[in-house]
Amino acid sequence: MNNPLPVPPTSGPTPINIEIPNDLAVHYANFALIMHTPSEVILNFTSVLPGMTKAQIDTRIVMTPLHAKMMLNALADNLQKYEAQFGEIKLPTDPGLATQFFGHTK
Questions:
Q1: Whose CB among 14, 41, 58, 99 lies 3.0–4.6 Å from 68's, allowing a Cys bridge?
Q2: Residue ranges covered by each domain of the chain
């Protein structure tokens, strides 16, 4: 009888092939409404233009707090690389749309 040997585990994670469809819908967002529950972080996005008094959320992303923190770290890393290449992103110092749209700026 021929008994196969156990396959040793591979070192490192198995790569995932991520594909971006050519017809993927793209949404521009300059407003985010962020909420959370004990088990989820909910990100709601839309765009608001000057003079608008009403906007409808058009994109919602729901993820675990762990994944949200991992995304936060990945976004911080990407912004650091962006600033290294293109210069510092200056946040507004006066209260305005950025504060209204994204909360308190640092």
A1: 41
A2: 31-101
